[in-house]
Design brief:
Blueprint lengths: L1 E5 L4 H12 L3 E3 L11 H11 L3 E4 L7 H6 L1 H21 L4 E5 L28 H19 L5 E6 L11 E2 L19
Parallel strand pairs: 1-2, 1-3, 3-4, 4-5
Antiparallel strand pairs: 5-6
Helix pairs in contact: 2-4, 4-5
């Protein structure tokens, strides 16, 4: 299986890449200077040329509280563009599996602990993360709808570790529906 890891130099993406390579997976990576994920035609050309079997979307524009407060429009716009470009290009290229990484910031600021998936969209977000969170929520929703519509794009949605779960640091909300099975190491939560 050929797996493209978008965002392989970041904290989460680099850990995913390391695990995949340790398991002998064939990985495809590009640095930002090699592939600007904000450039839709470039992302489309890359996906069509490489034809990965799976894409792990760990790329994002991130920053601290100061950057989030100083540039909120830039954070929502760039994250939406990165996510839209990767997801749409993967779909158009016939990629069978997509793992889209969620974040604890997509849950309400005052969500009960431990957080439950059902808490999503039940209250206000933390203001310092709101632009990043809104972009994540929008793409998560779009991917889930495409999957329900019967598209060929499988979806795995990884949320951060929830203290009550013993799932090796990951929780998957939607299982990839593809003939080849799940991404290496993926699983679905208990019912």
């Amino acid at each position: 299986m050929r797996i493209h890891v978008a965002g392989h130099r970041g904290m989460v993406g680099s850990a995913i890449l390391e695990k995949l390579q340790a398991r002998g997976a064939e990985t495809i990576t590009r640095t930002r200077s090699e592939l600007d994920l904000l450039d839709a035609p470039a992302v489309r050309r890359f996906m069509q040329a490489e034809k990965p079997d799976a894409v792990i979307l760990a790329a994002a524009k991130v920053g601290g509280i100061h950057a989030n407060n100083a540039y909120p429009a830039q954070f929502i716009f760039e994250n939406l563009m990165i996510e839209c470009n990767v997801v749409q290009s993967a779909f158009e290229a016939g990629v069978g599996k997509l793992l889209f990484l969620g974040s604890s910031c997509i849950y309400p600021r005052d969500a009960a602990q431990p957080m439950a998936e059902g808490a999503l969209l039940t209250g206000p977000l933390e203001l310092t993360n709101e632009p990043y969170a809104i972009a994540k929520i929008a793409i998560r929703s779009g991917c889930a709808r495409r999957l329900r519509r019967g598209g060929d794009l499988g979806l795995g949605d990884a949320a951060p570790r929830v203290p009550s779960r013993r799932r090796h640091g990951r929780r998957f909300a939607v299982r990839a529906r593809t003939p080849a099975g799940d991404l290496p190491g993926s699983h679905t939560p208990d019912a």
